[in-house]
Amino acid sequence: MLVIGIIFLLPFIWMLSASFKPEADVFKYPVQWIPHNWNVVENYRAVWFGDPPFMLYYWNSIKVSVMTILISVITSAMAAYAFSKIYFRGRDTLFIIVLLTFMIPGQAVLVPQFIMYRSLGLFDTHIGLVLLESFSALGTFMLRQAFMSIHSEFIESAKIDGAGHLRIFAQIALPLVQPFIATYAILRFIWTWNDYQAPLIFLRSPELFTVQLGINRFADATGEYYSLIMAGTCSAILPLVIVFLLAQKHVIGGIALGGVKG
Amino acid sequence: MERSASQSTASSSSKRWLSTTAKETIAGYLFAAPMLIGLTVFILIPMVSLFFISLTKWNFIQGFRGVEMIGLDNFRHLFQDKSFFVSMLNNIKLLLAVPFTLLFSLVIAIVVDEKVYFKSFFKIIYFMPYISSVVAVAIVFQILFHPSQGPVNGFLMSLGVTNPPKWLADPTYALPSIMMITVWTSIGFNMVVYLAGLQSIPKDLYEAADIDGASSWRKFRSITVPMLSPTTFFLLITGIIYSFKTFDLIAVLTQGGPAKSTNVMVYEIYDQAFVNLKMGYAAAESVFLFAVILLITVVQFWGQKKWVNY
């Protein structure tokens, strides 16, 4: 089992070890898993402070991810609250419409979205990219399940005390579903950070590029410097590994619970 | 007098009742509004306009003046288009990766489930490829599979293979290479869902089988596999849908080549729309893709009732 596990991780181990080596040692065979000559600082400095500017891509990705998470969590949580704790006419029909949008594959609407973006001036902007990724039925669905587990008595008694929905939502409901919000926010982070297709189509200016576009551009520009390319890929994966290791229970639990595949 | 007073309290309380329902309705719509508006603007309106665009010939460079209504010509062309046909065939071939993923994931899930120690450690290991960025992973594999310098062929040659395949650069091996990478990245997701499924099987079924003296193979065949059938079915459907959406790997690794051997539908749509700028034709292809995925989803709803044990 351990052996299969290690074989499974070999591509990562190779990547990490190649990023530590001087270029000449990258393709030496048999593979030097632990580098004989170290070139860590030089490699990573060249990637982070060289040209194309990796720092900028990082900053762009962080900006886009944080904005997407914020908008997505707030709108999903509000809608989820409405669909589970407020009784209003037309609610179930609306919820079914929301669920139906989940069946529309993102790739099918790329062409009209692109045309719309060109005419609205949202093309080649970060905010356009954020808006595109912020509205998904998935978050509403996941958080609705969470709100359903709150007993209605909590809400009724708050209402009797004179609290409005806004107050109940912010001070009672949201704190009670915090773990679910965290799970959704982390999954949203992983999906946004990893997204390649939307930035590829909706961004044009190199100074707006996210890490995923940046790393590909970097790989093209650096050409044959494989040690540098590997240092770049390591840097692109690093935030995901950190978030995943810190919150693996949330990530794995969320995946198993919702059975979701971004 | 008394009567009218009681009537007026009744009507005022019914008014209050009405007004609380009205308030609830307003609150409901206000809370749902941001999501509903977002979904309408960014998904529903594009979806509706997709059908309209698919009926046009639209060279995007000329803007809205470049729109020309041509009816169903795009679809007629679609069914005669060799390149689209090849991309569809590649999508179907790519589906072969799904059963392999399911098989490996199930075996790994069972082993991890029975392990008492290091359970979460193994979960993390198998989950790593799933959370990692596809682009970064694709670039790593591009180097690993490098025909002359790559470590994979280095290893094969050291085993005595004199003419190892050129992997991504060879039309015969390019799609299988993509499939291998897909299996590797999807195992984590499938394994975690299988683990959840395994843990929901009642333990007394196994105990009863033990009393009857059933072998482990027998227990696996008669309890584990049937009890997991809803999970397997779910994973099969999500795997198939996911497979139709493969884009990143192709875009980074092969751009549909060599010789169109890895040109899948989503990449073909991208190519027509954003490289050739044929918006109308790409929209028609999108309509087709949407129909395929919708069909699979409908099969899921129908099949859940038909052949899955709950």
Automatic annotation (TrEMBL), chain A:
Keywords per UniProt: Cell membrane, Membrane, Transmembrane, Transmembrane helix, Transport
GO biological process: transmembrane transport
Membrane topology: Multi-pass membrane protein
One GO CC term, this protein: plasma membrane
Broad class of the protein's primary localization: membrane
Cell compartment(s), UniProt: Cell membrane
Stretches that traverse the bilayer: 57-82, 94-115, 127-147, 168-191, 225-247
Entry's family note: Belongs to the binding-protein-dependent transport system permease family.
PANTHER family with a match to the protein in the record: ABC TRANSPORTER PERMEASE PROTEIN MG189-RELATED, ABC TRANSPORTER PERMEASE PROTEIN MG189-RELATED-RELATED
Protein name (Swiss-Prot/TrEMBL): Carbohydrate ABC transporter permease
UniProt lineage: Bacteria, Bacillati, Bacillota, Bacilli, Bacillales
Automatic annotation (TrEMBL), chain B:
Principal localisation: membrane
GO BP term, example: transmembrane transport
Subcellular location: Cell membrane
Membrane-crossing residue ranges in chain numbering: 26-53, 92-112, 124-145, 173-196, 225-244, 281-302
Protein name, per record: Sugar ABC transporter permease
One cellular component (GO) term of this entry: plasma membrane
Family: Belongs to the binding-protein-dependent transport system permease family.
Top-level taxonomy: Bacteria, Bacillati, Bacillota, Bacilli, Bacillales
